[in-house]
Amino acid sequence: MRNIKIAFWLIALVPAALYLLIDPSLWQPAGFIPFRASMMQLTGVVAIVFMSVAMLLALRPRALEGWFGGLDKMYRLHKWLGIGALVLSILHWMWSQAPGWAISLGLFERGQRPPRTVIEEPVRAFFASQRGFAEGIGEWAFYAAVILLVLALVRYFPYRWFYKTHRLIAIAYLVLALHAVVLFSFDNWATPLGWLVALLLAGGTVAAVLALADRVGASRRVIGRLAELRFYPGVRTVETRIEVGQGWPGHKAGQFAFAMSDPAEGPHPYTIASAWNDTTRHVTLIAKQLGDHTGRLREKLAIGQPIRLEGPYGCFTFDDACPHQIWIAGGIGITPFIGRMEQLAREAAGTDPSRRQTVDLFHSTSDVDEDALAKLAADASAANIRLHLMIDSRDGFLTGERIRAAVPNWREASLWFCGPAGFGDALRRDFAAQGFPVGPRFHQELFSMR
User: Fold this and answer.
1) Contacts for 425-433 with beta carbons within 8 Å, 24 or more apart?
2) pLDDT digits (tens, 9 = 90+) for 335-376
3) Nearest CA to 439 among 412, 414, 410, 405?
4) How big is the CA angle at 430 (ends 429 and 436), to the nearest 5 degrees?
């Protein structure tokens, strides 16, 4: 989370600071109209920078995953930038409407426009001639972008419609990019701010075109075949085993993939619940019946049907040098730990017991399925992992205090959490209050892609 916050504020403050360097009069404006013009430029510049970086992050650049801590963290920054762009765009629009509002309220009288200066330079003259057109299309693109961004933030808006409408933001971005090119102060193109805006607009435009052409992540896609389907009614969970060809590069336990079984529904992210074996070449995904799509999976899937996979992504891969690890799973958050246990069980035979990391796994769940729990216990036993099963109705809720009581050497351990965000945040605060270094040693997946 720390790197996300650093990135967000850098993306916001760098263009703002560069603008203030070339327009210091913002601090001592000559009047309302000059101040309004400066505020329109400032809010417009930072808004289009936010949009451009958000578009680039939508390409899922794997080169940045290591620094951010995974694609899930990058999507959280993508969401923050979208919200920031929404707020700044509204402020930009309000500044553009401010004179009309002020006149209608009687605060100002409409003055005569000064005579228009004849522009001799051809390029500058062309941009000036397009201002009316750019303002008109920009206003309509702004209205469309506001609606689309608000829909993206509404959690109850069906995912299949979110998938379709969210791609339309790329069209709104292209129109707003044209709006920005024409209305950005012409003299400022020759400044560091202008170079930064030009670079980001070029990158954002490429990203928007790739998104509209459905080419995001295209090089990491493979077509697999559904080989096995199993349903656990007690926990309302569907487990699928997908055979993949040579195109799949393999994965680490804890990573995730985008899977698509229905083009109309679009790809959904699922944590991979299996370790990679280059001989059997299969990927296991587990989905809980939480919405329209996952609720219908058992009826819609059929053995032998093609499944498109894209990935793998993520850095929730259990890589650290701590002698002990504490795994905490809330509900369906058990998924990455299942894959890791499979990997550890496979490696156990060839590993010196004294060199192995010891692991305590806490699984807190409100749903009970005896077959699923028996399989979990068998996986933990094979991987030599100490399993703590916490059923809410029987054992109460899992807390940091209960974890520390069960694991005396918790101060030397790393914590790996996957589950509801509120549960994870509460545990992070609890352990931080006990002096635990949550920054480097509390790992939490932010598995919300919208």
Assistant:
1) 426/400, 427/328, 427/400, 427/403, 430/399, 430/400, 430/401, 431/400
2) 999 999 999 998 876 565 556 789 999 999 888 888 889 999
3) 414
4) 90
Strand arrangement of the beta sheet that strand 268-271 belongs to:
268-271, 256-260, 306-313, 221-232, 237-243, 282-288
Residue 432's CB is within 10 A of a number of other CB atoms, namely 14
Find, among 226, 221, 222, the residue nearest to 301 by Cα. 226
Bond prior to 312 in cis (omega within 30° of 0): yes
* Alpha helices in 105-219, H assignment, sequence order: 122-129, 131-153, 159-167, 169-183, 192-212
**Cβ atoms of residues 31 and 276 within 8 Å:** no
Q: Give me the residue label for tokens 């005579």.
A: 115
Tokens (6 digits) for 331: 């509900």
User: Is the pTM higher than 0.85?
Assistant: yes
Query: Can you name the residues that pair with 270 across neighbouring β-strands?
Result: 257
Query: What are the phi and psi torsion angles at 130 (to 5°)?
Result: -95, 5
Give Dmax (Cα) for the chain: 87
